[in-house]
Every structure is written in structure tokens, then in C-alpha cells.
Amino acid sequence: MSTADIKKTAEAKMAKSVEAFKNELQKIRTGRAHPGILDQVSVDYYGSLVPISQVANVSLLDARTISVQPWEKGMGAKIEKAIRESDLGLNPSTQGDLIRVPMPPLSEERRRDLTKVARNAGEDAKVAVRNVRREANEQAKKLLKDKAITEDDERRSGDEVQKLTDRIIAEIDKLVSSKEQEILAI
């Protein structure tokens, strides 16, 4: 393994951390409806729990309403119950075979709580990135100890990984601030 391999591996792991963080941010709801909000809700489908998106068509009716169209007739009640019992605070209503999920407006207090959730998720993502940096630096030190690289190479590798870490953390901070603005916008 060389310092280039270490940097490439660290970059790939950090990119995965950012992607996981972006997925986490999508789950935090804003005042607008978003079909991804229901991704974490599972429904009982013949004895096994599956995401709603695997048993129904989830789409937007308008900016504040999600529509859920079950593929099977008998699934409507189960989907409605699963949405109601989720911790999202949503109250779906069934009209024929279409389930409408209106997004209630967020109170000021709830908006502040959601910004805290976004910040905490950002901190978790930063910790994951810093752990990747630490692993990369340890690998470089091990190569130095095994005399596979010189001290200059080890120092250069550490500097490159630090620059990469700084860039990724700045990206995470940018994502957090844009999500906070999205949440606080009325």
C-alpha cells in the first residue's frame, strides 16, 4: 500500500460519510412535503416489514400533500396505520384507494428542534470523517514504521489527508447551514 492508496481509500470513505449524511438530512422534514419522508416508514406486507415505497406509489399532490397509491387493494389500511404510528407526526386520510398525507405547518419551537437535529447529524458526520482521517494517518505511520515510506512521505500524506478532511468538513457545514435555512423558512 502506498500513500496514494491511503488517500484514495480515505477519500472514498469520506464520500460515503457525506452521502450517508445527505440521506439523513432528507429524513428531517421541512415545511414542504417530500416523498422521501416516508422512506423510513415500514408496513407489514404478508408477515414482513417493507418500506412503503415497495408496496405503493409515493408522490406529491402539491407542496404540502403527499399521495400514497397502494398497488394492492387491501394494503391501504395497513399503510395508513403505519404512517399514523410512525414518529413523523403525520395524519393520513384515505379517499377511495388513494391515501393523502397532508404536512402540518411547523411551529417555531419544532423548527428550532429540527435545526438542532440537523446540527447533531452534521456533528456525527464530521466525527465519521475525522475517524477516517485518523485511520489514514495510522496507516501512513505503520508504513513509516515498516520502512515502506520516508518521513517526508508520511508527513506529506498527513497534510494531504488533512486538506481532504478540511474540504469535506466544509462541505458538511455548508449542507447543515442550507438545511437550517430550509427548515427555518416559512
Automatic annotation (TrEMBL):
Presence of the UniProt keyword Phosphoprotein in the record: no
GO molecular function: ribosomal large subunit binding
Keywords: Cytoplasm, Protein biosynthesis
Domain annotation Ribosome recycling factor: ranges: 21-184
Domain of life, per lineage: Bacteria
CC annotations in GO: cytosol
Main location: cytoplasm
Cell compartment(s), UniProt: Cytoplasm
Family matches, as Pfam families: RRF
InterPro entries, alphabetized: Ribosome_recyc_fac (IPR002661), Ribosome_recyc_fac_dom (IPR023584), RRF_sf (IPR036191)
GO term, biological process aspect, one: cytoplasmic translational termination
Task of the protein: Responsible for the release of ribosomes from messenger RNA at the termination of protein biosynthesis. May increase the efficiency of translation by recycling ribosomes from one round of translation to another.
Family assignment from sequence similarity: Belongs to the RRF family.
NCBIfam families, per database record: frr (TIGR00496)
The protein, known as: Ribosome-recycling factor
Organism: Roseateles asaccharophilus
